[in-house]
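Why do we care about 3D structure at all? Because function follows from shape, and shape follows, mostly, from sequence. That is the central idea of this module. The next example makes it concrete: a single protein chain, its amino acid sequence, and then its structure expressed as C-alpha cells.
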Amino acid sequence: RRLYFDTHALVCLLEENGFTTQQSEVIVSALVKIMNTNLDMIYKDMVTKVQQEIALQQVMSHIGGVKKDMIILEKSEFSALRSENEKIKLELQQIKKQVMDEITKVRADNKLNLNLEKSRVKELVKLDLGSLFPSNSEYSVTSHAQQDRALTQTDRKIDTEVADLKTMLESHKLDNIKYLAGSVFTCLTVALGFYRLWI
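And the structure:
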C-alpha cells in the first residue's frame, strides 16, 4: 500500500523542530497506522475496477435476456390478439347477419299477418252486414269507418313492432361497436405497455 507523503522527510522535520529521533519515528509510525486504518475502512465499502466491470457485464447480459424475452412475448401476445380480433370480427358479422335475417323474417310475418287480418276482418264485416242489414246504406258507411279504424290500429301496431325491432338492432350495433372499441383499446394498451418496457 502506497503512502502519499515522505515519512523520512517528516521525521527530519520533526527533529528540526525539537523532537528526538525516537519521538519523531513514533509519531510517524502512529500516523501511518491511522492512515492504514482509515484506508481499510474506506476500502471495505469500495469495489475494484475489475469487480465493477464484471458487475456491469452481468447487468448488461441480464438486460439483454429480458429484451429477448420481451420480444418473444410481444410477438406471441400480438399474434394472439390478432387471432382473437379476427374471431370477434367473424362472430360480429355472423350476429349481424342473424339479426338482419330475423328482422326480415319478422317483417314478412307481420305483413302476412296484416294482410290475413285485413281480409278476415273484411269478410267478417261483409258477412255481418249482409246478414243483419242487407239494405241499410247508413250502417254500411259506419261499418266501413269502423273497418278503416281497425285497419289503422293494426297498421300502428305493426309500425310499433317494426320500430321496436329497429331499436333492438341499433342497440345490438352499439354493443358490437363498444365491444370492438374495447378490444382495440386493449390491444393498444398492451402494445404501449410493451413499447414502454422495450424502451
